[in-house]
Amino acid sequence: MDISLIFIVLGTLLTGAANSLLTKYQDNQCVRNCEDTGSSPQYFNQPAIQTLQMFLGELAMFFVYLGYKWYYSRSYIQLDQEESTGGGVALFKHWKLAIPAICDLSCTTLLNIGLIYVPVSIYQMTRGSVVLFVAVLSVVFLNRKISKLHWIALVVITLGVAIVGLSGTQTKEKEATSSAGLIVFGILLIIGATSLQGVQFVVEEHILAKQPIIPLQLVYIEGFFGAVTIVMFMVVLNFVAKAVQSPKEFAQSPFNIVEAFSEVLGNKTVLVTSFLIMASIASFNFCGLSITHRISATARSTVDTCRTLIVWLFAVVVMRWEHFKFLQMMGFAILVFGTLWFNGVIEVENWSFIPSWLKEGEAEDERTSIDEALEERLIS
């Protein structure tokens, strides 16, 4: 195997897992009343700031794109017309990508809120339901076709997510809310966010079918629109909250933009993890897109499954944020099996005991296109 490909796969695993773990670690950082025994400590619960971090990480891919163009110019290789489009020109030419960027913004914010209440492994596993939402929305809006066996695979994925969610109500974390009700609420937020991510992927495929653009441009353009949009929302909500809340409530409000940035800049750990999260997002996108380009979308999906395993093991064994639960392991195994089945890694149709009527009307090409549409834009 090519040694560079090995480093790319390892980079995808490590940076992808690091993003989820660093975000949860950031949530557990005390920012106020940390040593005051008379008051309850307050932790860094700033989902809007964490959403902005993600978009800034995506926007950083612009510099990777510049390096991409420079490399090919030095190699005297002529780029395609869409690949040679300048960065600034591409932003205005592909302004419609602001639509999926808003979906991405809403999705990421809900994910970050859900992560406050949910163990990081449950968070990562539940996000596997994105395959289900993308497939269903592609069938409804893009006229895709899915075979009977792959519909069954989607049912298996749903079952796995449900079991993982059920195990979450039995999971306790150190330094986090362990109420079963709040955990269920967080899981519902994550599922809702994942459904928005499915909408994002389908809209992107519809737009890109008419406006060809390379993946690197897709990432930094959406990063630009997302960063601008979230900053606008933060400013507007700051003034709204200031107008409707009392001074004491506003001082501790997550909509207080001055307080939000002071928590980042005033806490060294939060500040360092913010830069690490942005770096991990940019690196994960670069490595993931490289796998899709050099091997296949299915290979990237398999690597991403291993990333979820790393997050789970690290949270249980190293950080001890969670306790090992057999039900969670069983749900994860079912989720992985369904995902690999749907992506074609496990070829269930070749099993001899599968009834022939289930194999009729196989739509491998259509399933592959759905998978590629999903994995081409799969982000941490």
Automatic annotation (TrEMBL):
Signal peptide residues on this chain, from the entry's feature table: 1-20
Official protein name in the record: Sugar phosphate transporter domain-containing protein
Record-level Gene Ontology MF annotations: pyrimidine nucleotide-sugar transmembrane transporter activity
One GO term describing the cellular component: Golgi membrane
Record's bilayer topology term: Multi-pass membrane protein
Listed transmembrane segments: 48-68, 97-118, 124-142, 149-168, 180-199, 219-241, 270-291, 327-346
Subcellular location(s) per record: Membrane
Native source organism of the sequence: Candida parapsilosis (strain CDC 317 / ATCC MYA-4646)
Lineage of source species: Eukaryota, Fungi, Dikarya, Ascomycota, Saccharomycotina
Major subcellular site: membrane
InterPro entries: EmrE-like (IPR037185), Nuc_sug_transpt (IPR007271), UCP036436 (IPR012404)
UniProtKB keywords: Membrane, Signal, Transmembrane, Transmembrane helix
